[in-house]
Amino acid sequence: MSKGKKSSKKPSPKKIPCSKADRDKAYHEGVDLGLGRGVRLLLYALIEKRGMDREEAVSLGKDVDYITDSINRGYISWADIQAMLDEYDVVMELI
Question: 49-64 in b/e burial notation, b at 16+ Cβ within 10 A?
Fold first, then answer.
């Protein structure tokens, strides 16, 4: 057995130092990724299952970008969006 031999095991991610800014950045990147995938899934369903044409899909994509900007600027909130969807009885059970 040799003395001073370092372990070749990787350190546990729980023991790797991480700043609050790093955690916040990772969180927001994850949220952005998830929301982007959700929007793409919805557009895919509209195109594939509902026959939305290219022009409508492009227009809807622009509308989503506009609403996203409105959310980021504080003009509309997620609560506003949920309230409107509730009025239309829109229910989605996302897994």
Answer: eeebeeeeeeebeeee
Tokens of 19: 């700043």
81 part of a folded domain: yes
Averaged pLDDT, groups of 10, the chain, 95 residues long: 63 80 91 88 94 95 92 93 93 76
Q: Angle at Cα 68 formed by Cα 33 and Cα 50, nearest 5°?
A: 80
Residue 94 covered by a domain:
no
- Cα 78 to Cα 48, 62, 75: the distances in Å are 27, 18, 10
Rounded to whole angstroms, the Cα distance separating 11 from 89 reads 49
* Position 47 in a domain: yes
Q: What is the pLDDT of residue 13?
A: 73
pTM for this structure? 0.62
Give me the residue label for tokens 């370092």: 6
Residue 67, both tokens: 């609403």
